Amino acid sequence: MASSPTPPPPAETARNGNSDDGSKGEGLLMIDLERVRKSLIRQEDSIVFSLIERAKFPSNSSLYKSSSSSQIPGFDGSLIQYIVKETEILHSKIGRYESPEEHPFFPDGLPLPLIPCPPKSPELLHGAASSININSTIWKFYLEELLPLFTKQGDGDASSYACTAVCDLNCLQALSRRIHYGKFVAEVKFRDAPEEYGPAIRAQDRDALMKLLTFEDVEEMVKKRVAKKAMIFSQEVNLIEKDADDKQQNCKIDPSLLSRLYGEWVMPLTKLVQVEYLLRRLDK
Ligand SMILES: O=C(O)C(=O)C[C@]1(C(=O)O)C=C[C@@H](O)C=C1
């Protein structure tokens, strides 16, 4: 009988003995800041593309009102909540949330996987990582603050609601994965400098931790890069070259929105996850 495939390690991380430089760990999984940052860069592509897809539809605000699911017996909530919840139930049955990179928006009462999951490899993160889930904050900022900034006001055809909701789900999941990846970033930073982080963790000093893990120059680069990606990924591709201004004007999503998204929400929330993780990093 064919053996079940082994899942890949968390994106861009390598397992003990498999690191690119061939180094052998001492029972610890090998990750470093460069690999973790590479994963964050790759995840930018998913976020930019998912927003471009969502921008095809108008705001479709009916989808987010509780009346939108009134025809669904026994469900109290909006249609978007229903779609995300039901999708997560299915994904949980196939083991999605066994991965430390995945976080459900509706974690209560999710079913256990129905299909056998491969035995868990040694944990990369401290056990307390599983208690950190800030999806309720991500949900709120996405629906209330971000969506109105990049979708045209108005309700389209009701037949487009399902496709719109699937786009929302993709955006939410991509943002959630990226923001919670802060756990891996924090783990690497702690392993690189336990003598710096240790005292701040023992003192439970949030401000000191925030200061230690912040790199303003990196943040500036990230904001510039995501704006550039938005411009490149969302321009009309023509066989006849257009001038640069024309390309910028025809973008499916405003590149400056991406810098703003990262500057105001994505990076601050990733840092919040890092702080929350570090505060628990020395728990027994
Ligand atoms: O690259 C890092 O060191 C991170 O912690 C990630 C990140 C980000 O979210 O992109 C967050 C905090 C830093 O100030 C810079 C960037």
Write the layout of secondary structure elements.
Elements: H1 33-54, H2 79-93, H3 135-150, H4 161-180, H5 182-192, H6 194-202, H7 206-213, H8 216-234, H9 244-249, H10 255-280
Bound molecules: prephenic acid.
Prephenic acid binds at residues 37, 40, 185, 213-215, 218-219, 222, 267, 270-271.
Put simply, the count of helices is 10
Helix content: 40-55%
Task: Return the domain count.
Answer: 1
CATH-defined fold name: Chorismate Mutase, subunit A
Per CATH, the architecture is: Orthogonal Bundle
Query: What is the CATH superfamily?
Result: Chorismate mutase, AroQ class superfamily, eukaryotic
- Counting helices, strands and paired strands, the structural category is mainly alpha
Name the bound molecules: prephenic acid
Number of strands: 0
Along the chain, the helix and strand elements come as HHHHHHHHHH
Keywords: Amino-acid biosynthesis, Aromatic amino acid biosynthesis, Cytoplasm, Isomerase
Pathway: Metabolic intermediate biosynthesis; prephenate biosynthesis; prephenate from chorismate: step 1/1
Region (Disordered): 1-26
Protein name: Chorismate mutase
